[in-house]
Write a structure and sequence with these properties.
Elements lengths: L7 H10 L17 H19 L3 H7 L2 E2 L5 E2 L4 H10 L18 H35 L2 H13 L2 E6 L15 E4 L5 E11 L8 E8 L12 E6 L1 E3 L5 E4 L2 E6 L10 E14 L5 H37 L23 H33 L3 H36 L11 H9 L8 H36 L2 H28 L3 H36 L5 H18 L2 H10 L11 H4 L2
The structure holds flavin-adenine dinucleotide (FAD).
Length: 600
């Protein structure tokens, strides 16, 4: 049977040494995040994840959701009661603005809790997961009236939110959407169309479901310039806040899919449903991007979370399973065989898992800090810096985070040999559940294109220049510390590969845009390697400072340093090969005519 132990100690180390949470007590919302409060949130949040959500993970996978003839959907056994406890304990309010009834805790603290919940039960987490993004979109673009009507109950968790973009004929290319919004005399719109793959589109956990829906008004311009955003509740809401009539939106069916069986992925039919516009007409995609950016960071976190739980279980298994002998002679001569830990190839998989989960965790918690600083830092310059960094790194956190999360899950399944393929051990579920994160919320190839296109070019490349400056400063400072110098040099080399790849793309994408498309994925990976490398440099520095200060947990801190060295030796060198692939350009990739692919 699989188990889950929330990595609270690692989170606290990162919050202290990489995020340096205590430096930001002057930022609104952070004053409430004292060390004691954060420790309590992590302990209690970890407990909820491990004791309430995790025991339902395999049940959810086996049972899935059921759609009934009347269009209602029942979630797996135990989900409803667990959601009631989730709401009652106030977990939905953790990170929401105080003015709408939230606790206003920093994003990085909510990110840590989000990781615990996704590791414990990815499907369950998703029922509330998208609500936060919907709240942010309503806060940024909704009228005061819409905000007052919907947000407090969404913060309280009694209502949940969804994101309705995808239609049968379009997912990436949203300019093609067909859903119509026809204005009524009272300021509302009649929404008609079909949305597919809508996560948590219908379920029995909350009293109301608030759909954020992309649609086109009758005279809207063609393509993405003609998209507007609407809020469409499952139950209409009366002026006094009570629930009114059922709206004309219903779940037509639920998908049978590879993983996340416990989450209802719905076809949603809008049959003249009543909706209200959020923000300006034809500016809906920009408004939806507020929700999507939040969701992309959340999906990156799902990648890490699946990698983490797979890693934890593989570690237990490697301790228990005895096969063969160490290459250097028996490690446990009194036993008939040694544990899997003696085999370097098993170590390779586990060390990759350790180095990547800890590095990605640091990147995501630090990314959470940038989200808050982008809105709340005291000076315009600080806000701009944070905004540049998080907008540059959002596609990397989503794309690299989910690719590596899946890779870790597969490697950790491999540690189990044939038992990894057998359902009762739980590992095959982590592989199946991790896979979706690479696909939804903008497939990873599209994230890569976002990075090499808009994100690099924005403001004349200002964000990348800023990121490179931070790297250069950290590397220069680390070189002065002998215990960090080797790591700093490895990061400097990988950063050099990033710069060379950037230069090549700048010189070769103008003449042939396919060169950018062909190298985009590799570029996203180099950026992932370097950003996680920066995090490892900061963690190594923090570990050394604690060792020097005589911190009690020396073995744990030394393990951090060894893992940093492993990352420098085994993962960072990939940046060189990736750079060379980018320099290969698009020529051979685009050379074959499409008919030659099937001609075999
Ligand atoms: C379980 C599940 C849950 C989902 N939840 C939601 C949800 O809650 N709300 C919602 O609106 N949608 C949801 N989706 C939809 C999901 O976001 C889309 O499936 C995804 O964005 C890809 O769109 P598509 O399936 O239409 O693929 P396509 O757009 O057809 O893409 C096919 C392939 O082509 C590539 N591609 C397409 N265009 C480009 C390009 N310009 N450059 C490079 N590569 C390109 C893509 O990367 C992909 O590999 C969900 C999907 C699933 C399976």
């Amino acid at each position: 049977m699989p188990s889950y132990n929330p990595p609270v100690k690692d989170v606290r180390f990162i919050l202290d040494t990489v995020v340096e949470l205590d430096r930001y007590s002057n930022v609104p919302g952070f004053e409430a995040a004292s060390a004691d409060i954060v420790a309590a949130v992590l302990e209690e949040g970890g407990k909820f994840a491990a004791e309430v959500a995790f025991p339902l993970n395999q049940i959810g996978d086996l049972q899935g959701c059921t759609r009934h003839d009347d269009g209602s959907v029942t979630t797996p056994e135990g989900f409803k009661e667990a959601y009631r406890q989730f709401v009652e304990a106030g977990w939905t309010t953790l990170h929401s603005p105080v003015e709408f009834g939230g606790q206003g805790m920093p994003t990085c603290v909510a990110t840590a809790f989000g990781e615990f919940m996704c590791s414990a039960n990815h499907s369950f987490e998703m029922y509330y997961g998208l609500t936060r993004g919907a709240i942010n979109a309503l806060i940024a673009k909704g009228s005061e009236e819409l905000q007052a009507r919907y947000i407090p109950n969404m913060v309280a968790g009694t209502w949940t939110g969804t994101m309705n973009l995808t239609e049968p004929h379009c997912g990436t290319d949203l300019g093609l959407i067909k859903t119509k919004a026809v204005p009524g005399a009272d300021g509302s719109y009649a929404i008609t169309g079909t949305k597919i793959f809508i996560s948590a589109g219908e379920h029995d956990l909350s009293e109301n479901i608030i759909h954020l829906v992309l649609a086109k008004t009758p005279d809207a311009p063609e393509g993405s310039k003609g998209i507007s955003l609407f809020v469409v509740p499952k139950f209409l809401v009366n002026d006094d806040g009570s629930l009114g009539d059922r709206n004309a939106v219903s779940c037509g069916s639920i998908e049978h899919k590879m993983g996340i069986h416990g989450n209802a992925t719905c076809v949603m039919n809008y049959d003249g449903a009543t909706g209200w516009m959020v923000g300006e007409e034809n500016k809906g995609l920009a408004a939806m991007f507020i929700m999507m950016n939040d969701a992309r960071l959340g999906v990156g976190l799902q990648g890490l979370a699946q990698g983490e739980i797979a890693y934890q279980n593989a570690v237990h298994y490697a301790h228990d399973r005895r096969q063969g002998r160490a290459l250097t002679g028996p490690a446990d001569p009194q036993e008939k065989a040694d544990t899997l830990f003696v085999h370097p190839d098993v170590r390779r998989m586990l060390m990759d898992g350790k180095a990547l989960t800890e590095g990605l965790r640091a990147l995501m918690l630090w990314g959470g800090l940038q989200v808050d600083l982008a809105h709340k830092a005291q000076t315009e310059e600080e806000r701009q810096t944070a905004d540049d960094l998080i907008s540059l790194l959002t596609p990397v956190i989503k794309g690299y985070g989910t690719d590596k999360g899946f890779e870790i899950a597969v490697n950790c399944q491999q540690v189990y040999g044939g038992h990894g393929y057998i359902r009762e051990w739980g590992m095959e579920q982590y592989v199946r559940d991790a896979r979706i994160a690479q696909i939804y919320e903008g497939a990873n190839g599209v994230q890569a294109m976002d990075l090499v296109g808009p994100k690099l070019a924005q403001n004349g490349g200002r964000a990348l220049q800023l990121f490179l400056k931070i790297l250069a400063e950290d590397i220069a400072a680390a070189k002065a510390e002998p215990r960090l110098a080797g790591f700093a040099e490895a990061l400097e080399k990988a950063t050099g590969q990033l710069q060379a790849a950037t230069m090549w793309l700048m010189q070769n994408a103008m003449t042939n845009p396919n060169n950018a498309g062909a190298g985009a994925y590799h570029y996203m990976e180099i950026m992932g390697i370097v950003s996680v490398g920066l995090m490892w440099l900061r963690m190594a520095k923090g570990a050394i400072a604690r060792i020097d200060a005589g911190d009690g947990d020396k073995a744990w801190l030394e393990a951090k340093l060894t893992t940093a060295r492993y990352y420098a030796e085994q993962i960072m060198p990939d940046a060189g090969a990736l750079r060379r692939k980018i320099e290969g350009g698009a020529e051979t990739m685009m050379a074959l005519p499409p008919e030659m692919f099937a001609n075999r």
